[in-house]
Amino acid sequence: MEDKQRSILIESASRFPPPQGVKISYGTSGFRADASILSSTVYRVGILTALRSIQTQSVIGLMITASHNQVSDNGIKIADPSGGMLTQDWEPFADSIANAANPEDLVLLINEFIKKEHIPIGGVQSAEIFLGRDTRPSGESLLEAAKQGISSIVGAIATDMGILTTPQLHWMVRSKNKGTKVSESSYFEQFSNSFRCLMDLIPREDTSSSKIVENLIVDGANGVGGEKLEELKKLVKDLVIEVRNSGKEGEGTLNERVGADFVQKEKVAPLGFSEDDAGIRCASLDGDADRLVYFYIVPNSNKKIDLVDGDKILSLFALFIKQQLSVSNKDHPIKLGVVQTAYANGASTDYLKNLGLEVVFTPTGVKYLHEKAAEYDIGIYFEANGHGTILFSEHFISWLERRINELASTSEGSEQHKAALRLLAISNLINQAVGDALSGLLLVEAILLYNGWSIQRWNELYQDLPSRQLKVKVADRNAVTTANAETVVVKPSGLQEAINIEFAKFPQGRSFIRPSGTEDVIRVYAEASSQEAADNLAKSVAEHVDRFLG
Ligand code: G16
């Protein structure tokens, strides 16, 4: 590293001292902590993104968000050139620089890394980083720290894209690197146009179906998603969407008893919804709008909800795609795969397998699911918490385009031709960079309309096994290590045996634990044949966690 570059780094790093006595770790989707201790981490991630941009000669994204966490937290997600999450190979470097004790140590680590990775810094190389942030009050000052980190690498520039959802930023990074125009309005245009395109391929008699004419009500978690959905809905005339908890003055606090994480984990209606909404199709976004779940309030039930989670969204998508594939193509072998995690309800996995689909499992975190889904011609991944998308391989899209041309000349307007066009429309409607609640919502709505289904009909695809999730606060969550896609505890020894004894007591019992990668807790999941049994199983497993680690 040249002297000039070294002294710029030493000088700027001295303005962002790391917090004392705290170890910061790269978690499920980046760094996350109380916002008050994050400036040095954000500054250092700014440096990392500049190095990644130089190495790949592509635009990289840096998003300031703590997604579903409470408003006082913040965090960083990083988008790689493809628009996906930062390559896992760089996570150890991210961890080590985040924890370097002083500017000299930091420069030493950077120097070692650029040598190992052959990253030519300090010269003529340029780098560009797109910055985005959600609506958290701490976002503005943290963004400034990111800019300072980026500008401390010679030749790197930061482009502030403003307040965005996380998937918008990922989409912008992907689009820019593919050479297409990038702005927020081009994002809205792409998704609203693709939605219209899919709607035009829905048989007329079905669109006039009276089964789902009622409005859709969306809980925006008092975050950035509600605001963006208000924009998008102006371009999507076929849908009547009412946005609540959109984060406007007086509407409530970000993620506080609202949002997809709250609705999915607690299985209760968010604030702002009442018995008057019973039976109506409702959806919930999380704080940075990369998760989507649906629900409806059961009439006369004291606001009890039936949750239609990520597993059911996955099932709806998988069923529709499978149907369209079988109509559009009889002979060409297409590799269609489904990716889930241990949180997937056992009933959803059975349903998907019964459809004849290949179902594979990865640990929690879109970085794992996305990577696995990319191995298929069409890979559909969803976490039960509502984070997911559908990936179409370039190879498959080329084949599909050829097929559409062929059908256009032999049987234009036939059902076969339309089914192939529908698949192409889906590939443009569903965000290919990362799970996106807004694009996912448009696809759900189009499929429901196509099928003429109410949310209740959709929910009947299969019946969820009752489940319960709990959090346990422990002294050191990193004391737990797991294997087999997080279904088995390896450490501390003896804990898995204790869990096995518990779930053997309950019919259809299943339970696992894992350290959260976004909060300082151990998560417990349990499912069983009745709600009472699932609750009891979760409780006794939580007690074991507390006994081993409390
Ligand atoms: C992030 C990841 C998700 C993952 C979730 C789990 O979500 O992007 O893939 O499911 O964390 O969190 P934990 O490790 O705490 O269970 P988000 O929406 O918070 O960014």
UniProtKB/TrEMBL annotation:
Residues 184-293, 309-453 form the Phosphoacetylglucosamine mutase AMG1 domain. GO terms for biological process: carbohydrate metabolic process; UDP-N-acetylglucosamine biosynthetic process. Pfam families: AMG1_II, AMG1_III, PGM_PMM_I, PGM_PMM_IV. Binds 1 Mg(2+) ion per subunit. Substrate binds at residues 383-385, 514-518, 523. The active site is at residue 67. Interconverts GlcNAc-6-P and GlcNAc-1-P. This is Phosphoacetylglucosamine mutase. It comes from Aquilegia coerulea.
